[in-house]
Amino acid sequence: MSGNGSPTLPLTPATNFVVESSSGLIIPETRDGFYGYTDEKSLQQMEEQKWAQRRASDVAHPQADSTLSNSFKLSSIREALQIQTTEELHPSPFSDDEDKEQVSDAQHHMDAMMTPELARVVQSFQKCLELRDKYITKSLQRLGDNPRDHDGVFHGVTEGLADVSGVKPDVNQSSAASANSPHEPWVIYPPPPPPHWHFTAKETVISADGRLTPDNEFDFSQCQIPSNHEWVFEIDDKGVYQVYTNADAGTKKPLFDIPTIREYFVDLDYVLGVISDGPAKSMAYRRLKYLASKFEMYSLLNESQELADMKSVPHRDFYNVRKVDTHVHLASCMNQKHLLRFIKSKMKRSPHDVVIFRDGTDLTLEQVFQSLKLSAYDLSINTLDMHAHQDSFHRFDKFNLKYNPIGESRLREIFLKIDNKIDGRYFAEITREVMNDVEQSKYQNCEWRVSIYGRSVDEWDKLAKWIIKNELFSHNVRWLIQVPRLYQVYKETGAIDTFEEIVINVFRPLFEVTKDPQSHPELHVFLQRVVGFDSVDDESKAERRFHRKFPFPRLWDSQQNPPFSYWMYYMYANTASLNHWRKARGFNTFVFRPHAGEAGDTDHLTAAFLTSHSISHGILLRKVPALQYLFYLKQIGLAMSPLSNNALFLTYERNPLPDFFKVGLNVSLSTDDPLQFHFTKEPLLEEYSVAAHIYKLPQSSLAELARNSVIQSGFEMEIKRHWLGQEWYLPGAAGNDIHKTNVPNLRLAYRHRTLLEELAMIRKQHSA
Amino acid sequence: MSGNGSPTLPLTPATNFVVESSSGLIIPETRDGFYGYTDEKSLQQMEEQKWAQRRASDVAHPQADSTLSNSFKLSSIREALQIQTTEELHPSPFSDDEDKEQVSDAQHHMDAMMTPELARVVQSFQKCLELRDKYITKSLQRLGDNPRDHDGVFHGVTEGLADVSGVKPDVNQSSAASANSPHEPWVIYPPPPPPHWHFTAKETVISADGRLTPDNEFDFSQCQIPSNHEWVFEIDDKGVYQVYTNADAGTKKPLFDIPTIREYFVDLDYVLGVISDGPAKSMAYRRLKYLASKFEMYSLLNESQELADMKSVPHRDFYNVRKVDTHVHLASCMNQKHLLRFIKSKMKRSPHDVVIFRDGTDLTLEQVFQSLKLSAYDLSINTLDMHAHQDSFHRFDKFNLKYNPIGESRLREIFLKIDNKIDGRYFAEITREVMNDVEQSKYQNCEWRVSIYGRSVDEWDKLAKWIIKNELFSHNVRWLIQVPRLYQVYKETGAIDTFEEIVINVFRPLFEVTKDPQSHPELHVFLQRVVGFDSVDDESKAERRFHRKFPFPRLWDSQQNPPFSYWMYYMYANTASLNHWRKARGFNTFVFRPHAGEAGDTDHLTAAFLTSHSISHGILLRKVPALQYLFYLKQIGLAMSPLSNNALFLTYERNPLPDFFKVGLNVSLSTDDPLQFHFTKEPLLEEYSVAAHIYKLPQSSLAELARNSVIQSGFEMEIKRHWLGQEWYLPGAAGNDIHKTNVPNLRLAYRHRTLLEELAMIRKQHSA
């Protein structure tokens, strides 16, 4: 474990502490020598170097410069703290001397207050963090795990991982890899991006093979589709797809080490035990309070300096920092006025389109509206009735019905479905219109969630063909696949027999296309724009308790829906298996970003803590302080949508977003469903605007939220580099380029040091 | 007083109860026979007739229809009330039988609870209402007082008013008047609109004489400017302009009866006494609580019916009901992004424009920015620094500085001033751009406030020439003149000696142009688009108390600014005098719509209660229940701006707007300063959106707020007719056209009956 000297030392992740957060930011390890440049010392060096460069380039702004050299004005915070308390009672966590001294300062403080009970709590927290590391590592959800992260400049922090899976890189690419990086010996895997990974920040439409067609338009026929791979795959009797080499296929010895469902539930149980432990809750609650107060103190003392720093940056402001709408559903990505206008124009211009087959006959659009007794003129936002404000609070069931225009499922089918009589043409057209709007706004980007239900095995091909045929690619848009947890519905209608069928319908096409992309060429191309998976449904539904005697999927034929935690596992485990194979082939991998903690039980958030790159909502973390603290320590991304919550679960002013933000959780703002919630033509700006008004967020905090949203997103390394700064993945101010993000370095330095102290406290106790 | 039979009986308003509210809505009198169709009985008939028509036209919607015939579903409210209380204790205020019975029902209830103390309180309220009537009547601020109200269809409710002033209508117009209305004998004055009042709802630009120029553009040379009038005017020794006939000029017997400042302060004192009286406060508080609860009950029982009614209306919805931004300042009518873009484009395209004279030299735009050490690229929202969120709370002084881009008064002078080196050309250009945006949105309209400071007597001409030269006319825009209360500033700089000079500078040009429009032809044309006056400044400044021994304006030479109430009087009295003359000439009159109750003392709101058509803000009414109750009874318009308050005086969730709305106050939503407060391209929609989200307002309430905004506004009769319905000025459902307003009839019927009951209670006690 004397890492520095021997960077190629094989490490098995289950026993080693992994230093990155799945959010994409590297969280440095305080122990010595682990990964090449992420140990404490070299990080400090890098940060200092970065600052020196910044200082050199900032000579034009002497005011800002003088502050930067003033150790982020932290001395004044120390002074302020000294006024209120004695140094003995509350030694300042800040220091304007040396980082080394500072961290030990903080540790002395922790040591003093540490009782045996607290030491036990801290150790249990440490165990929880390690458990998460295990799951995230084994599913390749860390920064650098995705071959696409490696853009020829970034070479990863994933040294040694090849040994986890025992997999060697594709033979035809490994030579290029080693040729490319002679000077970074610790990067042995994965290879630099193959040519078909070329995503740039400039073009709005890129052909799938990365080459721009002459008129800069997508041309499917030009896409290079790789050929068959020798490995084979099969779903095991526990419902997880496993991959085998040809040789091993007989012995059934899987290539990849995926945690079993038994292991998962044992670990889940452990974390649930920790976060419901009295002393753990109490300690976490106090740490969170402390962090929030500390941020308030920081803000009061530094707001004018932050503003001065931001003003000294030319050109950049709230409107032209990049924002990603990290959580928005495709079927509600347009606002209500847009959908209304679209429906009206269709009724006017294409009344004779045959759009639906009902009751034995084909109906034209005109006939459909005749049957509804409506003309184009009659239609209004009120008749459309898709806004969810008055009658949907605590009525998620009602909210789901809001997806039906005029309460008519046939209109939803015609206008908002992919698999219909017109092959989703209308839906594609309005999607293209929204894409154009987003592209025009330039700085706004979206990650749209589109459904795969798992009801039949051809859903993937239909979706992919729809995307390809309608050329629904945009530089401003990436995709997530949402799998609704609707087992009981399909079971009731007889569409499926066992839960295993859902697993098969969702994952088999993905393994097929990974083994042989030419078997589903459209899907292969589409998947290059897919960044991850989501799991969605009404979390507030009651769940049957099985006391962990869960049948395996092939035996799950009850009328009951499996509980949230069970769904999580099968999404996780199969994605993990898939990711290993895709990585081995140099294809992009996927992260898991489910809805969790919008409502329902604590185990939803706990399952997400173990399995998920980041989550949507998470508002219930406010009721589980220990889990919230763990989310903080791991900087797990929360894509929050307070306007959505306001309509469904929690009034705006009670939303924990501002508290989470103060504590330092990795929070971003997203719209969820502009069709149901938003009024203006710019739903994401509306979301920021309301937050700014009601939570009184200053420009610096809006910029930090926007930066968080880019980091949480699945946009490619090269694009993030362009949007946030060349080394955006470095922690604290070192990773920041204020000229791009508009976030004051002061702010990120504060965030980083504060996090370091919390981690130091926990690790010290653990190793003690 | 047996009105019905003798409609031409002269009445002096000071002793007669006036039945309209200055807001433009007629509040019907419950006493018998006063004005032709505004007595209770004929109003009921009209309402019933209206409903019968609606019912006939609604046969296509049987569901809605069945409810309408069900007496607005009020029987179910009665049932609900009966469940909770016994009929004896709380006789239901509703009845599905007869209105007559219903009102007496309510009165019985009031009678039962009426103690001698309450009777005295009610009588004092009645006296306050009559005082307001006196002031509003004497200043011609009621609906129908403005010649422009008379569009050939509406013939007014102002019978008998000719006798107030002793003025006869212009000779050349009175014959047309009587010829026009042979069947409405009670309309003897004013005449139908002369030809140059032709404002239509269709054209965006109208020539001042009402004739459209060939290309539908404004052409000043085509405007007809009336000639000199024989009357003369002079400021009296109490600081009020008086008008005399030529014959009376020697005797100094004024033509018009304007309340003196002494009378005003006596009346003001009376109202102040009433609203600070313990029992009055307590009773009003209880009535307000009762009204709010009643509305909640109404909402819970009728929300689905309201929604059904709204859905049955074709086409109309929140987006295409007309909204007026009833309170927005010209210098901040654009959002920050717009101003930034404008400044950048000027720096790029016109760097060599000579824009300012400073320190003895003319400077080009380029030189100005060189002196600021800024390039076009450097500029951002942050450097502009005009948003007021963080540092302006309870700092109105700081807020005022936010009008300076980059904190530089020279940029404000170049870009946001009319009277500068470039004759306000830049300001006109950006104003035109905002006008274009508003016109494009079609359903959004503004009333912009532009300053006359009263520092010099040529301000009016400069402003009018600026407007005319730059053709700043738009169908979607009307103007208000705001007079900042800055006496002490001009006094200090020596610009003026006494307060009288401000009165002269503000009002003399107006009297000149009314006497002889050809003396200021541009001003005459501009004034046709001006709907009223405003009075603005930081209300939270401390005011010196003079114990009502105020010197007259010509003697006011102290360094102290006169108090708010004193300013109010002089704005009021001079406007009143001016209005009488303008009306006599057939020119449009002005209403007084000051800022009041944003901060400061209770006497601000009390002075506004007496003198003002409507007000901006009024948030402090929440602390003065008796005054709030009086504002309710008189339906005085409140143009509220909760996002502005949120940045300056009161956080959003504590804003009383939702409570006021429940009670039934005449509330509208406005932006105040989009430049300082709003984020999106559609500031008025942003204002509605945040209110909808945070206050959880349903579509019906948004529509009611929008309707209120139109009613409060100064848009012309013909336009309001087009926007709200042919007889929009009738109270309750009778005045509503849901096909235009999208407000359910149910809602307005509820509002109206509730108001009737409150008025009935007060009047019964008064006459008892």
Automatic annotation (TrEMBL), chains A, B:
Pfam hit, one: AMP_deaminase
Keywords of the record: Hydrolase, Metal-binding, Nucleotide metabolism, Zinc
Named cofactor requirement(s): Zn(2+)
Annotated metabolic or biological route of this protein: Purine metabolism; IMP biosynthesis via salvage pathway; IMP from AMP: step 1/1
InterPro entries recorded: A/AMP_deam_AS (IPR006650), AMPD (IPR006329), Metal_Hydrolase (IPR032466)
Entry GO MF terms: AMP deaminase activity; metal ion binding
NCBIfam families cross-referenced by the UniProt entry: AMP_deaminase (TIGR01429)
Family assignment from sequence similarity: Belongs to the metallo-dependent hydrolases superfamily. Adenosine and AMP deaminases family.
Full protein name: AMP deaminase
